[in-house]
Design brief:
The chain is of the alpha/beta class and about 290 residues long. The protein has one domain: Rossmann fold. About 45% of the residues lie in helices and about 15% in strands. The chain contains ten helices and ten strands. The strands form two sheets. It has a seven-stranded parallel beta sheet, with helices on both faces. The relative contact order is 0.15. About 0% of the residues have low confidence.
Length: about 290
């Protein structure tokens, strides 16, 4: 494999599992120095051990980080300077399933956490990466994880869909502002991707569901998102900025109702609460009949 990212320094939030982990592995294989930021320290240590076994020990660092806290993001971004002397690329990828349930039943604190991790966290990442990249004066690339759920209603729970739409528009606004510094800002809109956040320990069942959901006859995997990130991080996309790149196996092309019954939170039908994903934090799942007592 080519080493087109040789000596480049890349930060990946949510890099200890799923799409983030696949992206970390891809960048390491192409010569990059990678800093993994993730709330789940157990998963982070496992990533370091695997990288060491593959001969990448000198290229990787792990920082435990809650992206909803600005001080954590500042520390994470500064690690690129203290450990590798620079920053070239940021992949704002950390996420959770977030608040779910009927909109009349969503709790304020669950909405706030959903927004804090997946929208405010992206803002913090762009803000502090931009400061470093502007100071370096050599441009750079910032890539955010949005979702097809941010493109229309029905492809995800209300809170998740709202914050992902926010990520798309924040990406565009930041791209316009930072273009004069040659800092490109783009986002990826994944469809149904077979990650631990989605399959919940039952990949075979979810593989079948996701394959039936979309026109493309193969399930989306972390490697497909990694490939898109690599493109947006590379010089091959040097004239691409402010763009939401859809990676969904043709799901959105099939029409607005294609995923409505399957992607709008049906996994938690009859429940409300907060899906904390692979963070290691216990989720909150409450049956609707109990939530009204």
């Amino acid at each position: 494999m080519s080493k087109r990212f040789q000596d480049k320094v890349i930060i990946v939030t949510g890099g200890a599992s799923g799409m983030g982990l696949a992206t970390v592995q891809r960048f390491l294989s192409e010569g990059a120095n990678v800093i993994v930021g993730d709330l789940n320290e157990k998963n982070g240590e496992a990533v370091l051990e695997e990288a060491k076994a593959q001969g990448y020990e000198s290229q990787i660092r792990f920082v435990a980080a809650d992206v909803s806290k600005e001080s954590n993001i500042e520390e994470l971004l500064q690690t690129s300077l203290s450990q590798f002397g620079r920053l070239d690329i940021l992949f704002n990828n950390a996420g959770i399933g977030g608040a779910f349930g009927p909109i009349t039943e969503i709790e304020e604190e669950d909405w706030d956490l959903t927004e804090g991790v997946m929208l405010k966290g992206v803002f913090f990442g762009i803000k502090h990466a931009a400061r470093i990249l502007i100071e370096q004066g050599e441009g750079g690339s910032i890539i955010n994880t949005a979702s097809v759920a941010g493109l229309s209603g029905g492809a995800g729970p209300a809170a998740y869909s709202a914050v992902k739409a926010g990520v798309i528009n924040l990406t565009r606004a930041a791209a316009v502002e930072l273009a004069r510094h040659k800092i490109r800002v783009n986002c990826i809109c994944p469809g149904g991707i077979l990650t631990p956040l989605v399959h919940r320990g039952n990949p075979d069942m979810m593989r079948d569901r996701l394959t039936k959901l979309q026109p493309w006859p193969e399930v989306g995997e972390g490697k497909h998102i990694a490939g898109a990130v690599v493109f947006l991080a590379s010089d091959d996309s040097e004239f691409v900025t402010g763009h939401p790149l859809i990676v969904d196996g043709g799901l959105t092309a099939a029409g607005p109702s294609a995923g409505r019954s399957n992607m709008g939170g049906s996994m938690f039908a009859g429940f409300k609460g907060l899906d904390t994903g692979t963070t290691g934090v216990t989720p909150k799942i409450v049956p609707m009949e109990k939530s009204k007592k």
